[in-house]
Amino acid sequence: MAPSLTRRLISIGSADPERAERFLAARELEGLDGEALLEGLATAPDPDGALLGLVRLIERRPDIRQLVEAGIGRSEPLFRLLGASEALGEFLIRHPEHTDVFKTHLSAEPVGADPALLRESLLRSVGADPGSSRPVASSTGPQAYAALRIAYRRHLCELALRDLGAASPTDFLPAAAAELSDLAGAALEAALAVSRAEAEASFGREEVAAVALAVIGMGKCGARELNYISDVDVVYVIEAEGSPDGAGSIGSASVDATRAATIGTALASGLARAVWSPGREPALWQVDANLRPEGRDGPLVRTLDSHLAYYARWAESWEFQALLKARCIAGDRDLGSRYEAAVSPLVWASAGRDGFVESVQAMRRRVTDNIPAAEADRQIKLGAGGLRDVEFTVQLLQLVHGRADESLRVRDTTSAIAALAAGGYIGRAAAVEFDSSYRYLRLLEHRVQLTKLRRTHLMPTSDDALRALARSVQGVLETGRPSPEQLLDAWHRTKRRVRELHERIFYRPLLNTVANLSPDEARLTPEAAQARLAALGYRDPVGAMRHIEALTAGVSRRAALQRQLLPVLLGWIAEGADPDGGLLAFRRVSEALGTTHWYLGLLRDSAAAAERLSHVLADSRLIADLLEVSPESVKWLGSDADLEPLTLESQWQEIKSKLSRHTEREAAMRLVRLIRRREILRIALADSSGVIDPDAVGRALSDADQAAVLGALRIAEAAAEEADGALLTHVLVVAMGRQGGREIGYGSDADVIYVHRPLPGAEPEAAQRQALSIVGTLSALLTQPLKPPVLAERVLALDADLRPEGKNGALVRSIDSFAEYYRRWALVWEAQALLRARPMAGDDGLAHDFMALVDTVRYPEDLSAADIREIRRIKARVESERLPRGADPSRHVKLGRGGLSDVEWLVQLLQLQHGARHPELRSTGTMEALSAASTLGLIPADEAELLAEAWRLASRIRSANVAWSGRASDLLPSSRRDLEAVARWCGYPQDQASALEQHYLNVTRRARQVFERRFYAAEP
């Protein structure tokens, strides 16, 4: 018998048949018809849970046995509820007098309860008169709270039974959600009646009666799409009835505005206490009033005029969007209706407010932000393809198009989808799919919450829980037993479909407006299309529509592929700092590549490449300009390996190969400069894609410059040899400053000095003239216009102002002249400048000898007190004279407080003081030298870390300014748009410009403190 029973239990879905057999042998089930019992358990989503609940329920209410023995026709509600909701089973065990709920007849096509009857029932539960305009409960305190909560859960059981008995739970879902909202409203109505009764003890009946309170439901409750368990978001509106000045009077009571606010606050607080405070009957759900004006910092209740004054003057865009679903759910209905009528125009005008686009982008990020990593794969609500994705798309389309089309002004999601389809804003087929996907995800959420009546949006992890969930989402007429794997497959398919539908619903109608894709697709009017683009962040929607039309018009394969790709790309481009510039750049790149076979295929087959391209075009004018003239480089975006910067050796080998085949000077130099432009683009793409870190960017850019100088010097020397009949001298180009430290940014000039050494037998004067000719030609080759021009090139200018005697000194000197000058006349600032000297191009032997000479100057055996005072004096002079007039020192990344100059001067002072004794300090790189100084104990590790952070951040901002705008700037931007773009380049998430600003100001302020303490306290 036992093996047969075990098989039977397994067949009906028991996960632990041995345990189930023990419960079947319980005293409470003795004598029960076993077949009727097993037949009933077979209908339960979780047979094991239903069996345990049944044993416990019969212990409290033995007559339940009769219901079981009556057969499945009568017992099915019992088993379905106990097998779907442990929490409601516990409620019935606590209150067995409500087990008559199982007499509910299950209907395959249930209907929702009448909201008026729910309100009447909940009010009567606390002894209040439903017919009164302001009902007052006859009971208060814990007794009233318990009565209210018991009545609420009784109705919840009735709803759950109808829901679980539906042939199509997804069809019934909107009605179930609406009833849950109505039931919550009825509970708040009853709670308000209790609160009135409690308030009368403090304020008197007449004063309490003189204050009207409307409870405005927000979010899901306002939209009548509440979950089984969810916070109920509310806003409270009060009114002291009577005179126009806000004072109210009934009989002998007179209530001024201050007194009315005090009473209203007491009523609202009491209302929340009735449903949420601890008690012998557990709390229902939290009443959350944080969406009120000023949030938690604002008063709990306000008059209607106070609400409107706040919205007119102080409200942010998201607050108007939150009002989209506002609805009076309890309290004074006339006051609530006036509130709804007053705020509705504000909601539908919000799309035209300043900051709407930023608010929309913030809404979008909330789809995926702040999801714990452990929950990311289990989220039903948040994350890609979740419920929030659907709600975002629908609400944004409502806000954008509802300004002109009142048919879209509905609150709940399913009705909004239908209205959008009826208005032609989304395709009908897409709307059907979107609606069914949304309903399925909401059904999963409902069933997961129903189990324990806990606020959760996570899919369960155990196979047993997944198996029970799979059965609970089935319709009552379905007989199969889906496996956990089948449930998860269906869920993942739905999430993927939601993501696809978001793109199809939001962007494809834009294309159909200009490209006539299909009569089955939504087609927007030009005005509606422009409004949608503006909501996405396009500042020139008319221009954007022209670009879309140019890309998608026609019957060519290219146009067809663009129509396939653009719905996705438009969204990615819109996420950038400059969507208009990004779309224009995309059009230009696409037109430049024409019918190239690989381009559109790459974007179609590599989502990573397509997303990278979209982002860099919208975030970087530097990259957009370079890609426009070098569009074939788009191919690199498909592979990180292709984005890795070429080594200096590889670039030099390529340049030498080009020069060997092109003897004409201008043509040869054009090839050299094209290679440099190409490598700057590669580096910028790698930088923006996160393939290389900021330190590697500086090294790679220095390598690109060095390769170009090597090529230019080779050409210049050949020209001099041809002009003079022989090469008379070797020229060395020595990099200085940030170029010498290999820590430059985009578009940096190259600080250099020129050294030469005459060849044996050459006349010194002739050698000097040739050296001058070579460096003059070298500089011209790198900067002069070429034919055809090198478009979008960031010209490399060589600056020799750091040479001996500065601008007044000879442009190029022999090594012997340098030795003599440094021996007799070198100043301490020149020794400091030489700390970053590095051979860049020229004869290796000359480079070796010159650097040996330089080391004797830049690493002195002793740095005198006078030298230290001179360094400090020069630094102070630089700060006072070179900082641009009107520039804010706290925002100047080079010369300002705690910026590049502060860090570099401090490090260089340590090198001058200690470099002779500590070879570890002999580095041209600022960060390497700072690290060595910390290791040697010359500066505390925490201070070195702070200085390094400030220096790297300032360097990053400097490069970001060029990458974003294409123009060099040493200022942290003040414009919010520019600051946002710079913040993104620096790795900050969207809308975190203020975080970058605050971080920079904080770090540099502390770095300046370290600088002043160390630099001005330094001793010889």
Folded structure, characterized:
The chain has 1020 residues and is mainly alpha-helical. The chain is built from 45 helices and 12 strands. The strands form 3 sheets. Strands 1, 2, 5, 6 and 7 form a 5-stranded mixed β-sheet that branches. Strands 8, 9, 10, 11 and 12 form a 5-stranded mixed β-sheet that branches. β3 and β4 (253-255) form a beta hairpin. α6 (72-84) crosses α9 (141-164) and α32 (648-661) runs parallel beside α34 (694-724). The longest helix is centred in the N-terminal third of the chain and has 35 residues, at 169-203. The model is unreliable at 243-252 (pLDDT under 50).
Itemize the secondary structure elements and their pairings.
Blueprint (H helix, E strand, L loop, with lengths): L1 H10 L5 H8 L9 H8 L5 H14 L3 H6 L2 H13 L1 H9 L20 H11 L15 H24 L4 H35 L1 H5 L1 E7 L1 H4 L9 E9 L7 E3 L2 E3 L1 H20 L10 E2 L12 E3 H10 L3 H6 L4 E5 L1 H17 L6 H10 L21 H15 L11 H10 L5 H25 L10 H10 L11 H23 L1 H8 L10 H11 L4 H12 L4 H18 L4 H15 L5 H7 L1 H13 L1 H9 L10 H4 L4 H14 L3 H24 L5 H31 L4 E7 L1 H4 L9 E9 L5 H20 L14 E2 L12 E3 H10 L3 H7 L3 E5 L1 H15 L6 H17 L18 H15 L11 H10 L5 H25 L10 H10 L7 H23 L5
Parallel strand pairs: 2-5, 2-6, 9-10, 9-11
Antiparallel strand pairs: 1-2, 1-7, 3-4, 8-9, 8-12
Helix pairs in contact: 1-2, 2-4, 3-6, 4-6, 4-7, 6-9, 8-9, 8-10, 9-10, 10-13, 10-20, 18-19, 18-22, 18-24, 19-20, 20-22, 21-22, 23-25, 24-25, 25-27, 26-29, 27-29, 27-30, 28-29, 30-33, 32-33, 32-34, 33-34, 34-36, 38-39, 41-42, 41-45, 43-44, 43-45, 44-45
